[in-house]
């Protein structure tokens, strides 16, 4: 195995085949990130090859004197490796280059952490700090009815919401895996238009209002469709769309990226009803977990208290950056004792 820097972003057939991990490590996610890099911020593709195949990959960029992940929509991610030997070579290569490394939200149980610690031993410092977790619902056994996961009061809330929703017309749930560009364009247009009627529009965070985020998810959804993992879920009340989700079904898990509902239907909690439906879909399909991506919002506590833990990682070769890291760590320790 050898470390190299690729001149071009690798295509899907060359992408390292990973077991486990997250959809934010897939070719679909990374190529969408790479396609939206600001001008003047070139990508650095650190790769490990063996027998003409990529075993590990780190798509990074240099900014502010640090080697960083590509802009990520504040989603957790990780280095990409097919196996631990490839990851070890990649970590050694990152430790040998001169810039300090910053990974924003790395899974706390990732094999990358021990690999970086070994690579930077006698070369520099590795600093770990907590990062925002993401909620998840574990589905370790097949569940016929997900209402069994909730108490009597919560089940009554669902029934009450369905009765209120029925006043607007027939309830129709759909979970779509679009098969072509025309179907995807139609579904995304419906989802984006519905989200523009949510609270996110006023906050400026709707996909139709935030150009970078909106374009990112268009690119990601196109690629995710080609990889067969894209799911777009809709709840229609009569002839109107009341709620939507953009998600992935990948590695035996349901990964929820976007959810919104039309404020006109807020009284019947359409987002909650759609969440219950896609959770039932995941459970009936024998999936292992339902993962909430992005930031950890308070409403997720209605669904689960279980979380996936993450950490920030700073790894710097001995030098000025390592000295600054050590000084800041000492100050934090001192403040904690006062």
UniProtKB/TrEMBL annotation:
Pfam families in UniProt: Acetyltransf_6
Domain of life according to the entry: Bacteria
Looking up InterPro entries in the UniProt record yields: Acyl_CoA_acyltransferase (IPR016181), BioF2-like_GNAT_dom (IPR038740)
Per its record, how is this protein called by name? Uncharacterized protein
Q: What is the lineage of its organism?
A: Bacteria, Pseudomonadati, Pseudomonadota, Gammaproteobacteria, Methylococcales
